[in-house]
Fold this protein.
Amino acid sequence: MATAPNPATTGVEAGTPLRMYRQMIAIRLFEERVNDLYTRALMPGLAHLYIGEEAVAVGICEALRADDYITSTHRGHGHCLAKGAAPHLMFAELLGKEAGYCKGKGGSMHIADPATGNLGANAIVGGGAALATGAAYASKVLGQGRVAVCFFGEGALGQGVLYESMNLAQLWKLPVIYACENNLYNEYTHYSETTAGDPVARPAAFGLPAETVDGQDVRAVHAAASRMVERARRGDGPGFLLLNTYRFRGHHVGDIAREYYRPKHEEQHWMAERDPVALHAAWLVSEGLADQAMLDRIEKEVAAEMDAAVEFAQNAPYPDPQRVDEDVYA
Amino acid sequence: MPDTVATGPGPAPSGTALRELTFGEAIREALAEEMRRDPRVVLLGEDVAEAGTPFKVVKGLVEEFGKDRVVDTPISEAGFTGLAVGAAMTGLRPIVDIMFGDFLALIMDQVVNQAAKIHYMSGGKWKVPMVIRATMGATRRSAAQHSQSLHAWPSHVPGLKVAIPSTPYDAKGLLKAAIRDDNPIVFFEDKISYAKVKGPVPDEDYVIPLGVADIKREGRDITLVATSSMVQVALGAAAMLEEIGINAEVVDPRTTWPLDEKTLIESVRKTSRCIVVDEGYYRYGITGEIASVIAEGAFYDLDGPVRRIGARHVPVPFSPPLEDATVPTERDLFTMARQMCNK
């Protein structure tokens, strides 16, 4: 079983390089529309864009089954989409509409969806670590064969509960993968200023196998994730992926003047040379798996889907304030 | 003081033979019965298996249910509590054992930002059916980090329910209800009561709904609202008051959230006087909230302001005479009640 098929683009099979391209372009175009809505003051709150990191979410989620679990982060739109979320329900949630995934009660940083195994985006840095470990624990106890992936940024390397979780996962051989997206910046601070030692020495200390992966190469991510997932699913315990990537945009949409913490030439280098969508497109063409016309067609179809999704969300009604007290208790 | 304090019979079906159990035995029985009833119930915590915790309350469970369901954890309260939250979302009904309630400070992100909010943040899609058992109560000479009664903390947070039983009957019925509830529940057990408080508990299965107060002693002159360990203190004070002609009613909310406001207000409308006593800190605590609920609901029937007695606003000290000075006593309650009744 792969992630839920997306009916908008026909002829793109699950688990194939073309499917991964489609999923990455979906995230890219989704996020561009978030940026547009936000800068036009049509979206409340904060918007943390995943642009530049698409290969991480897609490479990993394409290695998962639909009933596997993920936990996501404040920068979570990409994880949610890659795990099978429907764009129109995500946009509705981002705009605070009743039709959204969480009835407008969660917003951008809390998209959650049991139907796609999404335990929720979490706005506490490292907040998903113990939850994903617990889902893996339940899967093991209940004999379900499900794997849980905990996505987190390198900023979460500073959170103690991550290490408590890795210790528990290894002691109890739980099927959980800790996926550290190192986009180099803990908000506005370079990770070298916050992170002593080697990131992968941390999982090694608990006996977790760790792989360092080029997070801009979706095929490399997918291959590494597939190895870890297969290992976890057969009962060999947790794993750790360090995915070197880059946040093309600011910490959030309003983070425009960034030169005080990262130089423009660095951004330009990553965008020009290390764009995961462009890299994968070039590979598809060079391997003869697609031509530019086909890629253009996919992009056009996805763009139409995203525009329709935005329109759906904009036309959807807000929740009735009378219902604010609902869902506090089950 | 006697070694054990007897509690009155709970509202059990008439004609049923009632056994006497200690508070700790009643809790163990509730855990065992619910684990037998539902294979999804697991118990996680430090030294819960062979050791049965330092209080021995869960002793014997591992023999019946095995180490897969009675699970010793590392000393990682945040880690295993958060793990239980994730497991609760995905099909188990975990109970975590927080050996000392003071360690709530270590798990607050998992409880407050995760467990309490996941149902709401997901628009009602995910549920977190779990119980966090934590101890409370001073006078064990355990000093400032092993003696606090912090039940006001979770009571402040929407999405959590908080139980704070005082008798073996209530402890068993409330714990069984908590385990069957689909929400995260923090369940506070008074350490001193484990062995000291004894009372009747029926043989058959029963649950006590969360959010229903119990009148532990009927009276007409003054209402003593008391929680957990303070129920015994209030009953002792009521006996002293009876000797000077004051007939006190003792009401135990049993849960701080949901709070049975109706029973509290009705009692005070009848008696026209009220003292709220609780072992949590006096400042910004349970007593303040309950007093204000009563003041709002029974204002025109009150003869004077609702008074409060709580733990002194200091870290719990070690030295016995110092520690004893921090906890409300029967004499404190008696003196205040007598003054309020002009006797």
